[in-house]
Structure formats: structure tokens, C-alpha cells
Amino acid sequence: MEIRNWIFALILCHAALVLTSCAVELARSPPTERISGSAGDVLEDDPVGRLKVFVYELPSKYNKKILQKDQRCLNHMFAAEIYMHRFLLSSPVRTLNPAEADWFYTPVYTTCDLTPNGLPLPFKSPRMMRSAIQLISSNWPYWNRTEGADHFFVVPHDFGACFHYQEEKAIERGILTMLRRATLVQTFGQRNHVCLKEGSITVPPYAPPQKMQSHLIPERTPRAIFVYFRGLFYDVGNDPEGGYYARGARAAVWENFKDNPLFDISTEHPTTYYEDMQRAVFCLCPLGWAPWSPRLVEAVVFGCIPVIIADDIVLPFADAIPWEEIGVFVDEKDVPNLDTILTSIPPEIILRKQRLLANPSMKQAMLFPQPAQPGDAFHQVLNGLARKLPHDKSIYLAPGEKVLNWTAGPLGDLKPW
Amino acid sequence: MMKLSALQQSYLNRRPGSFRGAAPLDSSADGANKSPAAVFWLVLHGLCCLISLVLGFRFSRLVFFFIFSTSITTNTNHFMAPFRQLTTTTTAADVASDLPSNPVGDAALNGTRVVVGRHGIRIRPWPHPDPIEVMKAHQIIERVQREQRNQFVVKNPRTVIAVTPTYVRTFQTLHLTGVVHSLMLVPYDVVWIVVEAGGVTNETAAIISKSGVKTIHIGVDEKMPNTWEGRHKLEAKMRLRALRVVREKRLDGIVMFADDSNVHSMELFDEIQSTKWFGAVSIGILAHSGGAEELSSFAAVEKEVEEKEKKQAIPVQGPACNASSKLAGWHTFDPQPYEGNSAIFIDDRATVLPMKLEWAGFVLNSRLLWKDVEDKPHWSRDLDSVVDDDIESPLSLLKDPSMVEPLGSCGKQVLLWWLRVEARADSKFPAG
């Protein structure tokens, strides 16, 4: 008799569990899936307590004065370097005692020298960086201890620390000699490329979070656009025939799909750009002059599946975010078959990608909100830095030992700034 | 070859466009020495430029391609870029042919298939949409939208009981078919009570039978008067008749008033599911002036448009909420601008005005109408105690009108549109 009672009780408990789980499922929130990255649920790691960062006090000509000269630096897509500085100044990982620091940060705004049009000029950046490093190496002993191996720099420009907007020139220059041992936090990422060194942390370009938040539309709005893209296909000013710009991929998209009703693509600048992205299933993120673009951030925030057309690109936080499961990767040579590729994806996979994108931690990881919030891009950078700890003993050099050649590089770089 | 590389260099002068001076062109420094070969190339280049001006495309590239096609090795797939405009079949042939075997170039890197430099623009032989793929894409979109809708599905959907007063007239088919289609799209169970003035007729029965929803067709013997005022009164009586049917048959669900010429949005049916006892929604009033005035001269129309823009856009009738989202009052229709200009007879060509509060803006739980229901709120009047003649809006069914629930984000969403369009008495709707 007793056994019967126990069995009955067990059945009741099981039934109760099943019912409660069903009730939870019916609750009215958008279904999301947890993102299990290659290293587990790393997006939600908290870096506080896992590392200590010392921020060098540089004279304001390296940061504040440059910003004062042109306030547009706060809004363009390279603004991450400024916001990173501000975040670190008030973050709990900051330490004022350099002896206990794991990482050293040098706040120098190299991407803030803007043309009247707003594009950053990289010509003085190598000299500025060099001058900053000379300053920190002469005023503090920590640079010489490792020749920068436990220092990190934010270089969000087109080709990172190669400091040039033209790819051939950037490759010719290579990464600035003095940064060859440091960790670089950059937006550029392409495999087997001179300007991406091993151990760099790829971050998304800056996209203004408030502006995106203010353009949100109700989630019920049905997604009726199949593929969406707004931007240039031919850079008429610099490459009128096409073939150089985007390695011909954007031009191929236009030529193949300009009359296809499924592809809502044009060069217009509509005011409803953000709203339209929220009504689209796929958003194209092809390369331009550089492989990365803010479109990826916008697609993730607005729940549109990014279609990444850039061979060998390295996406932000690639070791924490499983981009293969979230986006669709199309080789540049397969662009003429883009419609076949996209329509042959099974609907279950598309729904799964949308669920992954709906995960709020995914959206947070792509943004640089002010003030910083847990799980945002600042914290992912710190997580990345924390994952590289503890430093290998071999980075510490003997006193007086020099590995980097300080006089290497084009002559123009050696002029003082 | 120097000149060729100088040509290449000129393409390398990239962003920003207005910014050509700063990037140093190393090779052009070589042009300082005036060897005869350099002069020759210069002359040839100038000639090609002139010919290009005439022809309209880059002639020089064509020449160089033809003469030096084997020895141009700076970069990879040197597809016939200028031919892209001429014929697509040539490009097709090139798409079929694969990459050159050895991309030698100053920019090639080992271990990567990505090479810097000029690439061809790949265009497939028939760059037009494939109908099968378009269908597949639509199926994907449909699936995605279904998933989106499922997130917002109502937990316990209740039957929608739609009450429509109607009568046979020219535009009846037009209006009633609109309601038929709206009700067919409703994702919940629908019971449609159609009350007809002048008795049940076959025409009406034919229209409502096409709806596919459960219908209750009742006739009221009185014929519809030809004044708007009379019509409003009779329609109120007809609606009460329908409510009595709900009471007799003890129909369970949410009663809404679907006037035959109104326009209903699908969100309305989703929103009314959240009614507890008595709810109110906002109606947009499409009070239009009759056709004759609009056909007057364009100048007058423009002036009218300007005036209308200065006034408020479209009048909305419905609940008004205070800051704490509680019902504070009612937005009613203000007939003042149309004073003296309104239609009196049904086929007048003047503006038809709605009543202060239209029936269509209210929904109620059918249990309010039942006899002998224990948990009926005390602030509702029993249907039997309502006298037909003094009922102007369903608020008369309540003792306490402040208990009405405002729906549609507290009246901010307009969920249906009030419209009255009737034809002249002597016109006929096309048969068939």
C-alpha cells in the first residue's frame, strides 16, 4: 500500500512539473534561445574581479584636446575609442596602482582627425601613437618591462593599426612596429591579413544606441521584406567602374538582383531605415572598402538575420558569439546565386536564427551604451582580456633587452608629433 | 609599362574623393625624365582619352587589355570590365571560366584566397528572378510571420458575437461583403447576428451565407425610414433585439457591433478579447462631404485641403484616459463645423454625421445580458428593464458608466473606422 502511495505522489509531482513548464512556455514573451558560444555562455560573464586595468594619464593633447577640436568624433563609427576610455575611467576594474595591474591602457584618440566631410585621416596617427608610447615608456617602467605585451590599445580605424584607409597601402605599412607585441582592440578582422595580428580582440563598430532604441517598432509588425539593403553598390567617386570597391561583390549584388522583387536594395537614404530593417527577414552586410560595417550591429539589434558577404572576415567577439549559427555566410563568388542560397535555407533554421538574435544578451554585446551596462561591448572586451590572463612568463623581458625596432617603418612616421 | 602602372595608380587614389592631393603618388615622380618612350606613352594616352570622350567609355583600357592581356599580371581575374555594358553573354563565358591559376601581384598574400585589387563583377547568365524561388521565399516569409503572430496569441480566445443591423438597399452588397470578409479573417470563433429591417429577405441571406461563419438572421418588420435620425433609432432597436437573442440563446462570448458600412481592423478583434465586462474602443470618424462638392474646381479643393490641414486631422470618438490610464471621460464627435450642412435624408449628398457616441465603439461580455448569472456586476442594468425608445448608446445598459474598460492602449489606438455611404434612392447596384 505504501509503495502505491509513493508512486501516486511521484506521478502527481511529475504532472505538476509538466504543467508548470507548459504554463511558462505560454507566457507572452518572444521566444529566445540561449547562446552557447564556443566557450560556453561567455556573453554573460562578469569581468569585475577577474582583471585589473591601469589607465595611463596622458596629457590632454592626446585625447581631450583632440575631442574638443571636433565633437563629431563622439558619433561616428570609430567612437568606440573615446567611449572605452570613459568607461575604463569609472569602471570597477580600474586600478590606480600599476603594480597590481594585469593590463595597461593608453588613451590616445588616433581616429579623431576628421576631414570636413567627417572621414578620419590616418596620416598623423602613427606619429601620434609613437609619441604616446615614447611618453609612457619614459615615464613608467611598465612598457619596457614587456615592450607592450601586457598593454592594449583601441584602434578602430578601417584597417586597425596599419593606419591607412587604402588596403594596399595598409598592407604595405603593416601593423605599427611598436604595437606588434601589444593586444589590439580593433574593428577590422580578416583572416590571414597583415593588419590582424593574433590575439587581437575584434569589436563591433560604434552605433549610437539611443538612436536605434528610438526607432523601435512594435514586435508584432510582420516581417514582410525578404532581403533588405541600403548603401552604395558602386563608389562612383573613387571606383566608377566597379571591381575595386568591395571586390566587385556589391556591384554583383546590384547587377544580379536589381529587378528581383524579393530584394529591397537601393542606394537611397530613407528616414525609415531602422524601421525597415525591423520588417525584413534578411539584411545584407557586404564588405565595402573594408570588410566590416555597422550594418552588422544594426541587423543584430533589429533582429534581422545578417547575410555576411566578405571572404575570410573575422566578426566581433568571434570566440564568444557563434556567428555561424546566427548569420548566413555567403562567399563572394557565390553572390550571383544569393537568391537560391537564401531561399533554400529550411524555415526551422531561419526561425532558430531569429530566436538567437532575439536574445537580449546578444544585442547588448554589440552596443556601447552610456552609461555602460552589464553584458555590453565594453564588458565583452574586458572578458576577452580576462580570458588572455594569466600572462605567459615569456613576455617579460630582461632589463635593457629590446625586441622591437623603434626606427622601423616609413620615414614619415618617425617625425615627432 | 611605367605608364600602365601610373594608370593603375590613378585608380588607387581612393577615399575621400575630394582628397586627392595628400596620398603620395610615388610613381608619378618618375615622369620627370622625358625619354622618348615616356613621350610616346603620353601621346598614346592622350589619344585614348580623346577617343574615350567620343565613344563614351574607357577606350584606353580596351586597348591595353587587347595588347597586353597576357602580360598584365598586377592582379587577378581581369575580367572584361568594359564589355559588361556591351553583351552579357561574353561575361557569361568568363564567369564559366575559372580564376587564373597564379594570382601574382604586389598584394597577394600566402595562404589566403582573398586578393586585393580589381576583381570582375560576377553576373550570372540570366540575372532575373526565378518564380520557384520567389514562391519559396514567400513561404519562408509566411512561416516567419506565423511564428511572430504566435507570440501574441490570446490564451483563452472567446467567441466573437458580431451584431449587424442591415436592410436592403443599393450599397448593401458592398458594405455587407466588407463585413463578411472581415469576419472570415477573424482567427476566433464567430457568431454573426444579422438583424434586417423590413423582414428577412433572400438577398441578405444570400450575402451572409457566403461568409462561412455561423449566422443568425433575424427580421424586424418595421421598414427602414429614409431619414438618418430615424435610421439611427431603428438601428438601436434592432441591436437591442439582437441582444435579446443573445440572452435567450445564452450565447457565450464577446458582443461587438459590426455596422455594415464600417471598416474593422483585425487588431480590433484581438483587442476585444481582453474585455472583462464592458469595454470601449476608439473609432475614427470618416465624415465626408458628398461627391458634388468635391468635384468643384481644383482651386476650391486646394483651399479645402489647406483648411482641413489647419483643423484637426480626423475626429476620433472613444474613451479618454487620464494620466494614470483610468477612464476619465469621452471624446465625442463635435458636429459644430458641419452645422447646417449635414445630411437629413439617407440619399442626401451632404455630410453624414455620427451620433455623439456610436454603438460600434462598445463591446460587452455576453454574460452581462444573461438572466440569472451570479457574478454579474451590480452596475449593469438588466436587459428587460431597458425601454427601447430611450436608448441612445450602450452606456444606457449600465448604471455606472465609469466602469467601462478603455481598450486599445487606453483609446490611443484607432481600431475601427466609421463610415456611412449610401447611394441615391433611384440607383441600382450592378447585378451578379
TrEMBL record, chain A:
Leader peptide range in chain numbering: 1-23
Q: Which domain of life is it from?
A: Eukaryota
Identify the Pfam families for this entry: Exostosin_GT47 (PF03016)
- Any GO BP: plant-type secondary cell wall biogenesis
Residue intervals of the Exostosin GT47 domain: 50-345
Give the location in the cell: Golgi apparatus membrane
Q: How does it sit in the membrane?
A: Single-pass type II membrane protein
UniProt keywords (A-Z) are: Glycosyltransferase, Golgi apparatus, Signal, Signal-anchor, Transferase, Transmembrane
Q: Name one GO molecular function term.
A: glucuronoxylan glucuronosyltransferase activity
Please give an example of a GO cellular component term from this record: Golgi membrane
Q: Which InterPro entries match?
A: Exostosin, Exostosin_GT47
Q: Which family does it belong to?
A: Belongs to the glycosyltransferase 47 family.
**What is the recorded name of this protein?**
Exostosin GT47 domain-containing protein
Q: Origin organism of this chain? A: Linum tenue
Automatic annotation (TrEMBL), chain B:
Per the UniProt record, which residue ranges are transmembrane?
38-57
Q: Where in the cell is it found?
A: Golgi apparatus membrane
**InterPro entries from the entry?**
Glyco_trans_43, Nucleotide-diphossugar_trans
Supply the EC number(s).
Answer: 2.4.-.-
The keyword Transmembrane appears for this protein: yes
Alphabetically ordered keywords of this record: Cell wall biogenesis/degradation, Glycoprotein, Glycosyltransferase, Golgi apparatus, Membrane, Signal-anchor, Transferase, Transmembrane, Transmembrane helix
What is the protein's membrane topology class? Single-pass type II membrane protein
Q: Which Pfam families does the annotation name? A: Glyco_transf_43 (PF03360)
**What do the Gene Ontology cellular component annotations say?**
Golgi membrane
Q: Report which residue ranges the record marks as coiled coil.
A: none
Q: Name one GO molecular function term.
A: xylosyltransferase activity
List, in alphabetical order, the GO biological process terms annotated in this UniProt record: cell wall organization; glucuronoxylan biosynthetic process; plant-type secondary cell wall biogenesis
Main localization of the protein? Golgi
Give the protein family: Belongs to the glycosyltransferase 43 family.
Record's function text: Involved in the synthesis of glucuronoxylan hemicellulose in secondary cell walls.
Q: What is this protein called?
A: Glycosyltransferases
